[in-house]
Amino acid sequence: MAVYDPKSLKAEEFINDEEIRETLAYAEANKNNEELIDSILEKARPQKTEKGCVCSGLTHREASVLLACEIPEKIQKMYEIAEEIKLAFYGNRIVIFAPLYLSNYCVNGCVYCPYHLKNKHIPRKKLTQEEVKAEVIALQDMGHKRLAIEAGEDPVNNPIEYILDCINTIYSVHHKNGDIRRVNVNIAATTVENYRKLKEAGIGTYILFQETYHKESYLQLHPTGPKHDYDYHTEAMDRAMEGGIDDVGLGVLFGLEMYKYEFAGLIMHAEHLEAVHGVGPHTISVPRVKHADDIDPEAFDNSISDEIFEKIAACIRIAVPYTGMIISTRETEEVRSKMLKIGISQVSGGSRTSVGGYTEQERPHDTEQFDVSDQRTLDEVVAWLMENGHIPSFCTACYRAGRTGDRFMSLCKSGQILNCCHPNALMTLTEYLEDYASPRTKEIGYKMVEEELERIPNEKVKAIARQNIEDIKNSNRRDFRF
Ligand code: SAM
After folding, report:
1. Among residues 124, 129, 82, 130, which one has the least CA distance to residue 107?
2. CA nearest neighbour of 75 among 42, 47, 44, 37
3. What is the pLDDT of residue 404?
4. What is the distance in A from the centroid of ligand 1 to the CA of 333?
5. Against a cut of 0.90, is the pTM above it?
6. Which residues on neighbouring strands pair with residue 206, listed in sequence order?
7. Could you write out the DSSP letters of every residue in 84-130?
8. How far apart are CA 62 and CA 324, in angstroms?
9. What residues does ligand 1 touch, defined as CB less than 6 Å away?
10. What does the alpha-carbon distance between residue 72 and residue 57 come to, in Å, rounded to a whole number?
């Protein structure tokens, strides 16, 4: 039987079923242990030091106790600490991105995904390079600077060369004042050699959702195709890191399996990356199963309420304080609002989940991967964020300045975020306001930029940021960054 070892490179040892079961039993046994819960909460709280704020994070066992706890006052404390951590490391900035669907050809049999091989209802589509260009122009015209590219797994129709061509095309399009400055990639698990090619193509984060950490369920939910191989899928992030990609994004598709099991697995995966590579995941995504072409979310009986969903987000925020958290337009405005407060640092906006969707006047449904709950335009999302006190950020500076992996984490921990990320957010927001915003959004935005400039502690940085913002307003100069 496999023995738990966070340093192992074997899936069954670093995501160890027995360890997860023992963790869940420990959490259940201690869910009313107020003394223990208080000590875990105390450990999780950000501590102020001379060099800024530090947070110790939690082990999967400690975090699982918090998730199991049902005492209302303690849950309230968790939300408060999650918010405190969010503000300490991410401030009130929210990074904005959009997904770009390249191809829905897929040879897998994932039972929750409408792209599965046996689905004959949906037209199969793959963008040509001309179509990629047209989609990118449409995205730039909305104001996007960051994309997450998405594709089914199909070695014949979507080989790595196709993905690399698309990345090149995306980076080559400069329409008016627009450009895409960071391409994150969400494609199936692949080889070290292919990860190296993605790295060389200049990708940002490599994102791969585990879907479920529960091996038995995983095998049933992925009955056919290369994705059926649980170990190969689970060990993908280690190969990505071996290939030189040091920003990787984890995620679970909530609703497939018991959330407490998934949560423990997710935190163990983060601990494993830290133990082996010295750097945890760059982001964690929290998608929930949605209705799609031939997919009924009711068919998966582990769906979670909004309340539990929020508690999971708060516990992730507390357990892995330096990891960004992403929420997509799978969720409604209402849910996104609450999640932003307790830990989310990135949202998608104006998304279309269909292949070629951005160049269509009307939102097309025939090739959508899942229904989009938040159907507002990017301009509406930007205005809404600002009205709720968040700074929409289109910043891509870190990875372009080589601040990836542990260097990004050091920035996060150094307390320099207000002198670096904050002005970068304001300068990229100004680009958005100047080039793409509606008059109303522009008005709200410029008021926010003025107020937020005052919060930059370093006077020299403040003066440079102010000058750059004036340049953006009065010239075509763009892409300033610290
Ligand atoms: N084919 C790649 C893979 O298998 O990892 C790329 C990812 S796929 C385009 C993006 C993600 O969408 C999947 O990892 C899955 O978690 C999510 N997804 C699939 N079907 C979904 C559904 N019905 N509702 C919500 N999310 C879904």
Report:
1. 124
2. 37
3. 86
4. 21
5. yes
6. 185, 248
7. HHHHHHHTTEEEEEEEEEEE-------TT-TTSTT--SSPP-B--HH
8. 20
9. 112-113, 150, 152-153, 186-188, 208-209, 211, 227, 253, 287, 289-290, 292, 295, 330, 369-370
10. 22
